[in-house]
Design a protein that fits this description.
It is a single chain. The chain is α+β, with helices and mostly antiparallel strands. It has 1 helix and 5 strands; from the N terminus they run βββββα. Strands 4-3-2-1-5 form a 5-stranded antiparallel β-sheet, with helices on one face. A hairpin with a 2-residue loop joins strand 2 and strand 3.
Amino acid sequence: MLVRMASNQQTRPGIGELAKDTASGRIGVVMGEVGARVQIRPVAGGVEWDALPDNVMALTAREELSARLAIRNGSSRDGL
């Protein structure tokens, strides 16, 4: 899975970037926008959820490292 680095220059992560939904505390990859909602997919894959744009934030360095480690560990378990 290719995930771009979150840019500190943006106020909200773009498509393909890691993001945090501050309302739920969940972290995932921004997949797009539908209407007034941002769609985010869990890092390990699965069903997307909708988040309000004001609740979608770039990850801190620690959160991003943890998410990338989870992606890498999932890939190694799957034999990729």
